[in-house]
Amino acid sequence: MAREINVPNMTQCLVAGGAAGMAVDTALYPLDTIKTRLQAKAGFIASGGFRGIYSGLSSAILGSAPGASLFFLTYEKTKSLMSSLPEHQQPFVHMFAASAGEIAACLVRVPTEVVKQRLQAKQHKTLAEA
Protein backbone atom coordinates (compact mmCIF):
# COMPACT_ATOMS: atom_id res chain seq x y z
CA MET A 1 0.00 0.00 0.00
CA ALA A 2 1.44 3.35 -1.04
CA ARG A 3 1.70 6.00 1.61
CA GLU A 4 0.37 9.45 0.95
CA ILE A 5 2.91 12.02 2.04
CA ASN A 6 1.69 15.46 2.98
CA VAL A 7 4.66 17.76 2.31
CA PRO A 8 4.32 21.32 3.61
CA ASN A 9 5.14 23.99 1.06
CA MET A 10 8.11 26.32 1.46
CA THR A 11 6.05 29.19 2.85
CA GLN A 12 4.51 26.97 5.53
CA CYS A 13 7.97 25.73 6.58
CA LEU A 14 9.38 29.24 6.73
CA VAL A 15 6.47 30.71 8.69
CA ALA A 16 6.02 27.78 11.08
CA GLY A 17 9.75 27.46 11.73
CA GLY A 18 10.24 31.18 12.20
CA ALA A 19 7.30 31.54 14.57
CA ALA A 20 8.33 28.50 16.61
CA GLY A 21 11.94 29.65 16.87
CA MET A 22 11.01 33.15 17.97
CA ALA A 23 8.46 31.90 20.53
CA VAL A 24 10.88 29.48 22.16
CA ASP A 25 13.81 31.88 22.19
CA THR A 26 11.73 34.71 23.64
CA ALA A 27 10.22 32.53 26.37
CA LEU A 28 13.51 30.97 27.46
CA TYR A 29 15.75 34.01 26.95
CA PRO A 30 15.93 35.12 30.63
CA LEU A 31 17.09 31.63 31.69
CA ASP A 32 19.66 31.59 28.91
CA THR A 33 20.97 35.00 30.00
CA ILE A 34 21.36 33.85 33.60
CA LYS A 35 23.18 30.68 32.45
CA THR A 36 25.51 32.71 30.21
CA ARG A 37 26.31 35.15 33.01
CA LEU A 38 27.00 32.33 35.45
CA GLN A 39 29.53 30.95 32.94
CA ALA A 40 31.10 34.34 32.11
CA LYS A 41 34.80 34.79 32.89
CA ALA A 42 34.05 38.10 34.65
CA GLY A 43 31.54 36.42 36.95
CA PHE A 44 27.79 36.62 37.39
CA ILE A 45 27.56 39.99 39.17
CA ALA A 46 30.15 41.74 36.96
CA SER A 47 28.31 40.46 33.88
CA GLY A 48 25.07 42.09 35.03
CA GLY A 49 23.58 39.71 37.59
CA PHE A 50 19.81 39.70 37.30
CA ARG A 51 19.69 43.18 35.76
CA GLY A 52 18.84 43.48 32.09
CA ILE A 53 18.12 39.79 31.55
CA TYR A 54 16.69 40.64 28.14
CA SER A 55 19.98 42.25 26.98
CA GLY A 56 20.70 40.94 23.49
CA LEU A 57 17.18 39.64 22.84
CA SER A 58 17.12 41.43 19.49
CA SER A 59 20.07 39.37 18.26
CA ALA A 60 18.38 36.15 19.38
CA ILE A 61 15.14 37.08 17.61
CA LEU A 62 16.99 38.13 14.44
CA GLY A 63 18.76 34.77 14.32
CA SER A 64 16.10 32.42 15.66
CA ALA A 65 13.52 32.96 12.93
CA PRO A 66 15.85 32.32 9.97
CA GLY A 67 17.64 29.48 11.77
CA ALA A 68 14.46 27.63 12.69
CA SER A 69 12.95 28.31 9.26
CA LEU A 70 16.04 26.93 7.56
CA PHE A 71 15.89 23.82 9.76
CA PHE A 72 12.28 23.02 8.88
CA LEU A 73 12.72 23.85 5.22
CA THR A 74 15.78 21.60 4.90
CA TYR A 75 14.18 18.83 6.99
CA GLU A 76 11.00 18.71 4.91
CA LYS A 77 12.80 19.00 1.57
CA THR A 78 15.25 16.23 2.50
CA LYS A 79 12.40 13.96 3.63
CA SER A 80 10.51 14.53 0.40
CA LEU A 81 13.62 13.81 -1.70
CA MET A 82 14.12 10.52 0.16
CA SER A 83 10.45 9.49 0.30
CA SER A 84 10.90 6.79 -2.35
CA LEU A 85 12.98 4.65 0.01
CA PRO A 86 11.29 1.52 1.40
CA GLU A 87 9.18 1.69 4.57
CA HIS A 88 11.77 -0.10 6.72
CA GLN A 89 14.31 2.66 5.95
CA GLN A 90 12.06 5.57 6.91
CA PRO A 91 13.58 6.00 10.40
CA PHE A 92 16.92 6.65 8.67
CA VAL A 93 15.23 9.16 6.38
CA HIS A 94 14.02 11.12 9.41
CA MET A 95 17.44 10.90 11.09
CA PHE A 96 19.25 12.06 7.96
CA ALA A 97 16.73 14.84 7.30
CA ALA A 98 17.01 16.10 10.89
CA SER A 99 20.81 16.06 10.66
CA ALA A 100 20.73 17.98 7.38
CA GLY A 101 18.30 20.47 8.94
CA GLU A 102 20.56 21.01 11.96
CA ILE A 103 23.60 21.58 9.76
CA ALA A 104 21.70 24.16 7.73
CA ALA A 105 20.32 25.88 10.84
CA CYS A 106 23.78 26.05 12.44
CA LEU A 107 24.97 28.22 9.57
CA VAL A 108 22.70 30.91 11.05
CA ARG A 109 22.58 29.84 14.70
CA VAL A 110 26.30 29.82 15.53
CA PRO A 111 27.17 33.41 14.53
CA THR A 112 23.94 34.63 16.13
CA GLU A 113 24.73 32.77 19.34
CA VAL A 114 28.17 34.39 19.59
CA VAL A 115 26.69 37.88 19.24
CA LYS A 116 23.89 37.08 21.70
CA GLN A 117 26.27 35.78 24.36
CA ARG A 118 28.53 38.81 24.03
CA LEU A 119 25.52 41.05 24.65
CA GLN A 120 24.25 38.92 27.54
CA ALA A 121 27.62 39.01 29.29
CA LYS A 122 27.79 42.79 28.79
CA GLN A 123 30.98 42.50 26.72
CA HIS A 124 29.46 44.94 24.22
CA LYS A 125 26.79 47.61 24.59
CA THR A 126 25.08 47.43 21.19
CA LEU A 127 24.16 44.82 18.61
CA ALA A 128 26.33 46.50 15.98
CA GLU A 129 29.31 46.58 18.33
CA ALA A 130 28.98 42.88 19.19
From TrEMBL:
The chain crosses the membrane at residues 53-75. The keyword Hydrolase does not apply. It comes from Coemansia brasiliensis. Pfam families: Mito_carr. The gene is PET8. GO terms for cellular component: membrane. Solcar repeats lie at residues 8-81. SUPFAM superfamilies: Mitochondrial carrier. This is S-adenosylmethionine transporter. It is a multi-pass membrane protein. It is found in: Membrane.
